[in-house]
Write a structure and sequence with these properties.
Layout: E1 9-11, E2 24-26, E3 31-35, E4 48-50, E5 55-58, E6 71-73, E7 78-81, E8 96-98, E9 103-106, E10 120-122, E11 127-128, E12 145-147, E13 154-155, E14 169-171, E15 176-182, H1 183-186, E16 194-196, E17 201-205, E18 222-224, E19 252-254, E20 261-262, H2 266-270, E21 277-279, E22 284-285, E23 301-303, E24 310-311, E25 325-327, E26 332-333, E27 349-351, E28 358-359, E29 375-377, E30 382-385, H3 389-393, E31 420-425, E32 428-433, E33 441-443, E34 448-449, E35 465-467
Parallel strand pairs: 1-3, 2-4, 3-5, 4-6, 5-7, 6-8, 7-9, 8-10, 9-11, 10-12, 12-14, 13-15, 14-16, 15-17, 16-18, 18-19, 19-21, 20-22, 21-23, 23-25, 24-26, 25-27, 27-29, 28-30, 29-33, 30-34, 33-35
Antiparallel strand pairs: 31-32
Protein name: Disease resistance R13L4/SHOC-2-like LRR domain-containing protein
InterPro entries: Leu-rich_rpt, LRR_dom_sf, LRR_R13L4/SHOC2-like, RLP23-like
Subcellular location: Membrane
Length: 482
């Protein structure tokens, strides 16, 4: 029975248990509500169950009678309560369990990790708390993916996890895990390509790896260590180690909110054609950005906000033709407005606030449109002259209404990087998570612009936030009507 992507709604009837021979049930992306019927456990021939993207609520029913089950997804519903330890007992054939994006809570049963055939376990974006217990039968485990991110899990990360030799994807970010993680523990996982430990109460220690050789992680693509109290990593005189430039498959590197200083390794921006996300925000990085960015670079997200970087904004950034988010705010760049960025049609967010940019911002020789741009922050610089109407007209995203949000996607395993950007509204910082395109913002305050307010501002019909404070000419009522 496949009713996915239809308008079926209401409560799933108990009478579904009469379909005794049913083996496949797909009701995803419908409008079903209320609790799942307990009678679903009578469908003992079920192999494939997909009930994701509905509005099911209430407790999770028991599946232990579905001995043939191989695939179960209840992603993105409103399920509540705990998972009893016996709900999945005896499911020796199940390969994938996805209960992500619900409101489940309590302790995660250790029995979930010991299902003999299980390859993927996704429990992210719930309310699970308490401590994870160590689990047995590690040597026979088939687990390749574990996603427990965005819960309230506490205590140390079980040592058992670091003995799962087949593990490829481990995402534990945004919890309350504590203790110290030695990266030589992770080094055992030779197939691991995604590791997320960000935003916990952890400390990450690399001193146990010989010569701090990060190339000993041959399969690593995504490494997220934000807010991990990094100490000596991996040199620390404070320089980001050149070994990061040698990862053959690295696609995501998030080292934000630490204490790195010195220069950004040239190889990160020059050679690495696989890198999609680079977040080095809120460190103490110095010097300048090398103007050697390759035309093969595929960056989607670059955040260098809150460092001590100076010099000019490198024109070779224009080679990043897939760039969506560029945040160079709160640094010491001393340059003219980077007109060459007009050639990046995919750019959605441009943050250049609190630098030393100077001169006018018209771009007479650039004809490209910023068709996707919807958040622009040029505040607190030294820009002068007129606020140019032609540039404003090129921001076509602000001319029509859009009501969705987006992620930067950059992998082949279904993972997503959660975008965020901090804007300033009336002196108060506001952090936007999973940057919504419905939010449009323009801040050119605290510069030295002069002359008339451009009439083109009136055509930006979906503009939510506009800051022109300290503009050299007052706005008269008939000048600007938005």
């Amino acid at each position: 029975m496949n009713l996915s992507n239809t308008n079926f709604s209401g409560k799933l009837p108990d009478a579904i248990s009469n379909l005794k021979q049913l083996s496949v049930l797909d009701l995803s992306n419908c409008q079903f509500i209320e609790t799942l019927p307990i009678s679903i456990s009578d469908l003992t021939h079920l192999v494939h169950v997909v009930l994701s993207f509905n509005k099911f609520t209430g407790p999770l029913p028991s599946f232990k009678t579905l001995k043939n089950l191989t695939y179960l997804s209840l992603l993105h519903n409103n399920l509540l309560g705990t998972i009893p330890t016996t709900h999945f007992d005896g499911l020796e054939s199940v390969l994938i369990i996805n209960l992500g994006d619900n409101s489940l809570d309590g302790k995660i049963p250790v029995s979930l990790f010991t299902l003999p055939s299980l390859q993927e376990l996704t429990l992210c974006h719930n309310g699970f708390d308490s401590q994870l217990d160590e689990f047995p039968n590690i040597s026979s485990s088939k687990l390749q993916l574990i996603d427990l991110s965005s819960n309230k899990l506490q205590g140390p990360i079980p040592n058992s996890i670091f003995h799962l030799e087949g593990l490829r994807f481990l995402q534990l970010s945004a919890n309350e895990f504590s203790g110290t993680i030695r990266l030589d523990m992770v080094q055992r996982l030779q197939n691991l390509h995604t590791l997320g430990l960000s935003h916990n109460k952890l400390s990450v220690d690399i001193t146990f790896i010989d010569d701090h050789d990060l190339s000993s992680f041959p399969s690593m693509k995504y490494l997220s260590l934000a807010s991990c109290n990094l100490g000596e990593f991996p040199g620390f005189q404070g320089k980001i180690h050149e070994a990061f430039c040698n990862f053959s498959y690295l696609r995501l590197l998030d080292l934000s909110y630490n204490s790195f200083n010195d220069f950004i390794p040239m190889g990160l921006m020059k050679r690495n054609s696989t890198l999609r996300v680079l977040n080095l925000a809120e460190n103490k990085l110095q010097g300048y950005i090398s103007d050697t960015i390759s035309s093969s670079h595929n960056l989607r997200f670059l955040n260098l906000n809150g460092n001590l970087l100076g010099g000019v904004i490198p024109s070779s950034l224009a080679n990043c033709q897939s760039l969506q988010v560029l945040n160079l705010g709160s640094n010491q760049f001393s340059d003219r407005f980077p007109c060459f960025l007009r050639n990046i049609s995919t750019l959605r967010v441009l943050i250049l606030r609190s630098n030393k940019l100077n001169g006018p911002i018209p771009c007479p020789h650039n004809t490209g449109n910023w068709e996707m741009l919807h958040i622009v922050d040029l505040a607190s610089n030294n820009s002068t002259g007129l606020l140019p109407g032609p540039v404003l007209r090129s921001w076509t995203k602000m001319l029509a209404d859009h009501i969705f949000a987006y992620y930067v996607t950059s992998n082949q395993f279904g993972g997503r990087y959660l975008n965020s950007v901090t804007i300033v509204v009336k002196g108060v910082q506001m952090k936007l998570i999973k940057i919504p395109t419905i939010f449009t913002s323009l801040d050119v305050s605290s510069n030295h612009f002069e002359g008339p307010i451009p009439q083109e501002l009136a055509s930006l019909s979906t503009l939510y936030f506009l800051n022109l404070s300290t503009f050299s000419q007052a706005i008269s009522p008939h000048q600007l009507e938005i």
